[in-house]
Amino acid sequence: MNFAFSIQDVLGVLPEIIIALGACAMLILDLFLERDKKEWVAYLGIFVVILAAIASWCLINTAEPYVMGRMMVIDNYSLFFKFTFYLATILTLLLSINYAKSADLDYRGEFYTLMIFSLCGMLVMASGSNLITIYLGIELMALPIYVLVGFLKNDTRSNEGAMKYVILGGFASGLLLYGMSLIYGLTGTTDLAGINAALSAGTVSPVILTLSIVLMAAGFCFKLAGFPFHMWAPDAYQAAPTPVTAFMAVASKGAAFAAIVRVFLEALYPAYAEWQMILAVIAVLSMFYGNTVAIMQTNIKRMLAYSSIGHAGYALLGLVAGTGEGSAAIMFYILVYTLMNLGAFAVIIMMRKTGKVAGDSIYDYKGLAKNNKVVALVMLIFLFSLAGIPPMAGFMGKLYIFMALINQGYIILAVLGILTTAIAAFFYIRIVLFMYMKEPEGEFDLVKSCALYIVIAISVIGVILLGVVPGSLMELASKAALLL
Amino acid sequence: MVPYFSILIMMGFVGILGTAALVMNKIMGPKNFYKDKLSPWECGMPPVGDADRGHFKVHYFLIAILFIVFDVETLFLFPWAVLLADKTISLFIFFEMIIFLVILAVGLAYAWKKGALDWV
Fold this sequence. Notes:
The structure holds two protein chains of two kinds.
Chain A: H1 7-12, H2 14-31, H3 39-58, E1 66-67, E2 72-73, H4 76-102, H5 110-127, H6 131-149, H7 156-187, H8 192-201, H9 206-223, H10 232-239, H11 242-267, H12 272-294, H13 300-321, H14 324-350, H15 368-371, H16 373-387, H17 393-407, H18 411-437, H19 450-468, H20 471-480
Antiparallel strand pairs in A: 1-2
Helix pairs in contact in A: 2-3, 2-5, 3-4, 3-5, 4-5, 4-11, 4-14, 4-19, 5-6, 5-11, 6-7, 6-11, 7-8, 7-9, 7-10, 8-11, 9-11, 9-12, 10-11, 10-13, 11-13, 11-14, 12-13, 12-18, 13-14, 13-17, 13-18, 14-16, 14-17, 14-19, 14-20, 16-18, 16-19, 17-18, 17-19
Chain B: H1 5-28, H2 35-38, H3 58-83, H4 90-113
Helix pairs in contact in B: 3-4
């Protein structure tokens, strides 16, 4: 029997092991805590994520990246994404503590535990170097999020959003698996490098190859909410508890990008001519659809859902470029998107008017600047960054994507991207207009919470710092990027 | 072809056995249907809307989920037990299975404490 197993394998997946065991510990801790002390589950979660981050830190620049019989790869590319996921999860847990109290969910510690289980799936996705591992990671990531979307049990909209997400998610998983099985049929392997070698040899049927690429692109684009596969996103985003919306928008989308970039650049690169057109069409349609439909939204969570479809389009353009520069631009973009989107959601959670939990309607932001200058200013920073206005980080993110495109000669795609950025500016700046130019209707009663202040502070510093001095981080991303 | 013939016989046997059990039950089982017995609720109210699709206790669902988990565990234990005889890997796979069982035990402890096993 061919069997090799060493301590190296255990060390390589130590972050995943820590996260999985930590999530089990959270589950058990939850059982023995009093009703009003459940936030300790979240604190344990943050501690577990920090432990995993330390373990990942020790794995930077490992000599032998392939572990577990080439099922997992611990290269700097996966570690860059993992640190983004750690950051997103810690910030989301901080957002959740306060939200759970105000939404009367704080007696259910599973709210925090499920996020950690989902994080485990994202880590596996970022590290998977085999179609089987990547699929396993996708399911491990998605299942806890299905539950989290429907966490507001008595809210029928929450149930509806979760139901749509589960059914369409199952359908997309089916498409993805079908594409993967066709690739296996063509090449005889599920190992990404093996698929690349078999495709380079050029003996596969081009029709079936195209079919499997289309199916896999559809499956991945569902997870990252690209245009024709976005139908679940607005409903699920609007109906889910707000921290879960933030988590889905940044972490789950980031994990989908980590996987799609690796699969398409590492395994399917010999078929670049076949897939770049498919992905370019999806990216352009996502940018136009997401940013145009967002204009009509009056619910800010729904608006950010459509805007996230647009952002998925921008990031996909980096993959269309098909270079190391493009994949580095995606890594940078996802990190920046994590910071600015979580910051915006932190302000949404903070928004309240006396007598009711507000912040969902864009009209609630009328006159915020007259009441609280600081909160209005940070919201302005996040919205300007999402719109891509310099000197915020969102501008640099888009700039790197468009540079990668132009260097490959895709001038038209870059122009279309810039055009949709102009459309997008309208609905972001409309909220800024409400905050600064209108008179307040009713009193504001903003949530005062240390955890929220920490999230906003980290996000603001990150967004401005990466906008002004993006060089060093971009250099890190370029070194870690695939295909150099 | 020949090596798989026994499997074909087994499939046929299983099919016949399953059908036979159902048919015997249909022929020989006592039948005493009346309207009240067939209606989903027995408190006198006529069922409305979705309610007349039949009723079941939600606990059946929880027990079924737990059953499936441990069913799959058994599925993994059989090939594991066969491989355990191989001395070169036995120590490793022994601890691997222990870890697997501990993870399932955590799940069971959680479900137990949450009251999934209480038949109210």
